[in-house]
Amino acid sequence: IQMYLWSAVAGDALTVNSPANVAGSYPTSGANFGPGLPATPLTRPLIFVDDGSANPTLGCSGSTAGAYTNRIVMIDRGTCDFSEKVYNAQLSGADAVIICNNVAGGTFSMGAGINAGLVNIPSVMISQGDCATIRAELPGVSVTLQDPGSFELDGDFDNGIIAHEYGHGISIRMTGGPST
Question: How far is Cα 87 from Cα 34, in angstroms, rounded to an integer?
Fold first, then answer.
């Protein structure tokens, strides 16, 4: 019987600061490319991408250089890979990217793509519902992205886990084996 430590996330990474009617914390998922979220708060105005293409909210085409300087950019999920979207926003001056899921439900960790090695700004994904709520208030939204940190949980402090593991010790699973 062995007891283990495991990591847990301390909270949500995205906080909407204003306007008041959408202010609060929102759950996110990270990316498997680029840097993680900063430990110090990254607070910026939020802007929705417009790359000038036929599908301007997908961020699959490059935008004007400097168009997103000192901004966090929201981009719809779809068509091109995640790292391409983030890289295009980066080239246009964005400090970070929030990808909006395009299907109902939660979020997932975004996979790396063709430009993964070139991305040097953080990115996260939020749910379709949360995106719609925040997007309805644009322009005029201020957000903060920050690594919520993590902490270690210890199964030794949960007597339900201890009792469960002890049950293995007194059952035939660990005393005599399954063939006896």
Answer: 9
